[in-house]
Amino acid sequence: MTDLDIGAGTLALLALAGFVAGWVDAVVGGGGLVQLPALLLGLPGAAPAQLLATNKMGSVVGTTVSSVTYYRRVRPDLRTAVPMAAVAFLGAIVGAVIGLHIPKSAFNPIVLVCLVAVGAYTLAKPRLGTETALRFHGHRHTALAMVIGFTIGVYDGALGPGTGSFLVFALVGLMGYAFLEASAKAKIANVATNLGALVVFLPGGHVVWPAAAVLAVANPLGGYLGARTAVRLGSRFVRVVFVCVVGAFIVRIGGQLTGLWP
């Protein structure tokens, strides 16, 4: 793998990005859209697989901390969360194998299209996610959760940015959960997708360990604070943050693709 020289300034940037990413990820998901660009900026000589692997190594600690925090306070139904997480783990393994062959240039256009669709749908339905009103029950409910978990797991292994947001949106928009409970379940599935991707990335030696170590400390600190904030302020707060985060990511990625900023 590429030999990377990482200075103190770069590590400080990654620490700040990791903390912010952990907070955002715990509240609405999408922390990778903060953390991965920071890695792109701080490690310009890194290969795509190194960026993805290092991002996952930092994120898995943060998502684990926030998922435990959510579970203690929200008590999401594990009868749905566990099957969804199990197939998400398998999907992420498949996606990570695909991700080893995806060029950097493909990352942003795919993420942008998904974010625009998610943001537009959420804005068009102002009552979406304010309270739980499940659309399916029994086996159909579990089956849909597993389809969502596997599909987004593949995406997370292959690309990653926005995974938490897409999980939250799918649970709210397709299944009828309130934003707070959706965030709790999404965190459990996101732990599984991170672990699944690392099953592929770790044996290949793709992790840049100095950067990953900094992220693994900063990300869970932000994740713990974000989960506590979301639980305290409820689904309406999570929805507002969700719309703001998705909008900010659309502006940033869209500006990059149109050449408005690097």
TrEMBL record:
Q: What is its main location?
A: membrane
The record, for InterPro entries, names: TM_pro_TauE-like, TSUP
Compartment list = Cell membrane
Highest taxon of the lineage:
Bacteria
Membrane topology annotation: Multi-pass membrane protein
GO cellular component, as recorded = plasma membrane
Q: Pfam family example for this protein?
A: TauE
Q: Which residues cross the membrane?
A: 81-100, 106-124, 161-180, 192-217, 237-255
Q: List keywords of the entry alphabetically.
A: Cell membrane, Membrane, Transmembrane, Transmembrane helix, Transport
* Family of the protein in this entry: Belongs to the 4-toluene sulfonate uptake permease (TSUP) (TC 2.A.102) family.
This chain belongs to the protein called Probable membrane transporter protein
Organism name: Nostocoides japonicum T1-X7
